[in-house]
């Protein structure tokens, strides 16, 4: 039994089968099959219930999977810990970014950090807030930028900025010339929202429920710039963060909603009790100084 066998086993579970694991790892399926058999022979017990049509772990398999994940995390973190002990100003930081955040401020801080630590590299992944939290919990990213508040028993966080959420309308919309609009006035409108991975979606639905209705959602998307095209085609209305509204073209009008819930806060988030590399800790300290 070695690290490679554990990687193969975890991949089979995560990818729901040997065929998918083989494609994911770019390794021949017989190699993976043999590794699984070697593990079962070493442990002297089956890891998968082969009487089922779909992939199902045995009780032993479930325990072994959990322990493999822990061992692989420790194994992958070992170079980071060694670098940290040596005090090297190098490293790699994986950051999950909200798809509806103000990128300008973040990029400015990142640029300043790069000037100070030019040997640090980055992986930037754009997602919804819920997916970012999941990625943090699963140790797939080091830092996330997402909606606050978060569960303080799981995450540390610092505030990045706050802003209003604005109603966005096509200039020809019948509400375009009305000065004050609240959520109750949108009861009969078609909504263009983000998908369920975004906390912004939940916030808008909650505000509508508080106004006595469920929004009629005609489209759910994952990229804010698609909303621009849908609004331009008169498909409905949308509610977007103020910084995103500022990026839209002049075909639209935006209104501040008379609703205290139409404001949100974004922050920098990282997992409690997770080992952070030297570079990641320096990045967090750098962010705290700039915010």
How does this structure look, described?
The chain has 291 residues and is of the alpha/beta class. 43% of the residues lie in helices and 23% in strands. It has 10 helices and 9 strands. Strands 1, 2, 3, 4, 7, 8 and 9 form a 7-stranded mixed sheet that branches. Helix 5 links the parallel strand 1 (91-98) and strand 2. The longest helix is centred in the N-terminal third of the chain and has 28 residues, at 59-86. It is globular. It starts with a helix and ends with a helix.
Topology (elements, then pairings):
Layout lengths: L2 H12 L3 H8 L3 H15 L15 H28 L4 E8 L4 H14 L3 E8 L1 H9 L5 E6 L6 E16 L19 E5 L4 H12 L5 E6 L2 H9 L5 E4 H4 L6 E5 L6 E9 L6 H13 L1
Helix pairs in contact: 1-2, 1-3, 1-4
Spans of at least 5 consecutive residues whose pLDDT stays below 50 are none
How would you sum up the global shape?
A: globular
Structural class: alpha/beta
Q: CATH homologous superfamily of the largest domain?
A: Periplasmic binding protein-like II
The total beta strand count reads 9
Series of H and E elements? HHHHEHEHEEEHEHEHEEH
Estimated share of beta-strand residues = 15-25%
Largest sheet: 7 strands, mixed
- Count up the domains: 3
* CATH architecture descriptor name of the largest domain: 3-Layer(aba) Sandwich
Q: Indicate the mean pLDDT.
A: 88
Radius of gyration: 24 Å
In helices, the fraction of residues equals 40-55%
CATH class of the largest domain: Alpha Beta
* CATH topology assignment of the largest domain: D-Maltodextrin-Binding Protein, domain 2
N-C termini distance: 48 Å
Number of helices: 10
Protein name: Transcriptional regulator
Domain HTH lysR-type: 1-58
GO cellular component, one term: cytosol
Family: Belongs to the LysR transcriptional regulatory family.
